[in-house]
Structures are given as structure tokens and as C-alpha cells.
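$ run holo --ligand "D-glutamic acid" --emit C-alpha cells
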Amino acid sequence: MLKPGPIGVFDSGYGGLTILSEIQSLMPEYDYCYLGDNSRAPYGSRSFDVVYEFTRQAVEALFDMGCNLVILACNTASAKALRTIQQNDLPSLNPEKRVLGIIRPTAEIIGSVTKSRHVGILGTIGTIQSESYPIEIHKLHPDIQVTGEACPMWVPLVENREYDKEGADYFIKENLDSILAKDPLIDTLILGCTHYPLLLNKIKSFLPENIQLVSQGEYIARSLKDYLNRHPEMDAVCTKTANTHYFTTESPQKFSEAATVFLNKDIVVDRLSLE
Ligand code: DGL
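-- output --
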């Protein structure tokens, strides 16, 4: 029998806060436990084995803190670790607990967004190389043509708070030109990395008006709400006192300063070691 606890939200660093804030807005009554593995971020260019190992450690830590449901609010971790954790680790860790990712819910909605049936994915090297987006999209919408573009400079631009400065323009334009040259029929671009919503205005400014941008947060929030409606047994073990506890594997002070950029509010953060 599971003991009620908060919903765990994991990211390699700050990016998952863009997902958490949408979840909090839609479901403010729930408790959350956010963990950012900032000391080992970015995950984007790390190997499959390393991303899997780090993510498994984080899931175990969130389970130990009482979470029964953990959301991998990181595309790279969802792409490289989710399936293995669900299939290999969950049965021995605790078969009643659940780990969900953010790629499948994004793939689900894309069929109703694109008209041209040509979709582009912007993400980290790891997410694009894993082919997770084309695989998940094709399971649901086999007619959609999917083109990926790795944007390795975009996360550092956000982390270093350069996202609204002129220096960011070069890298953003370069990747957008590249993906649209690969498939000029694209009418929908998925921001397949949790940091990219902070670049939204800049990205929009370089795109023709007919191209729609899909930012994941609101879809992930709706999908989580729907999941809890369909799984009342899990909802019953999610505590609801409207509290969020933040943890980082780096300096709490550094985390809380940077987090204000993502959350627009001050937060209290604790340090946690995963090694
Ligand atoms: N959070 C990661 C993602 O959504 C990006 C940051 C990283 O590379 O660790 O892919």
C-alpha cells in the first residue's frame, strides 16, 4: 500500500521549471517535489548510459522522498532513460509507483496541430539522436513527416541568461534556417527541450507567420491532469496541500537565483546529493 506523497518533477537542471509552473497553474492544490540535477547538467550531449544512470538515481531519490508519481520533465531524460526505467527498474524499485515522460504527451497532440503533416523537432543532441520524437509521433500519426534539428547552443544561452540578448540571434536563426531548409513544408515546430520556452519570442521573430510553435508545458500539465483522472488510485496517493519543495544537486542559492527567471517568484531550495 502506497503512503500519500508529493508528485516528483525531475529535470537535469532549471528547464523542468517551465513544465512545473504550467502543472502548478493547472493543478495548484497538489504538492510537488522538484529536483534539478544542476551539478551534472547539461544532459543534452551525454551518452545513453550516463543519462540513464543519472536519471535512475534521481527517480530513486524522489521515491525515497515519498513521491509515488515522478514526471521526467526533461526531454533528454525522457528520450534516453524513461523506457528502461519503466521496464527494468520499476518492477524492483516499487511496482506500484509510476514514472512518466514528456515526449508521448507531446506526440499525442501534434496530429491536431499540423495541417501540412510536416513537423519539425528542435531539441538537444541527445533528444534528436535518440529519434524518440519520430518514433512516438509515427506510432500515433504514421502520415506525419518528422524532421529533427539539434540546437546545442540554445541551452547554454538560457543558462547564461543570454536568451533575450542580441548574441542569441545568430544561433537561433542558424538552427531555424537549417530545419526549414531540410523540410520547407514544415508548419509546426515542437520546442522539444524544456529550456526553449524562454527563447519563444526570439524564435517567433525569425519564423514566417504560418509556422506554429508548440511549447510543451501546457500540454504536459493537461496530460498529467487527464492521467490522474483516469488513475484515481494514483490520485488518491498524491497529497494536496499546495506545497512545493525544491531540491538541487548544486548550490541552493545559485538555483534559487536562476529559478526566478523561470518561475518569476522567489523560492526556498535545499541541496541533495545523488552520488
Ligand atoms: N532539460 C533538457 C531537455 O529538455 C535540456 C537541458 C540539458 O541538456 O540538460 O532536453
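-- notes --
The chain has a mean pLDDT of 95.
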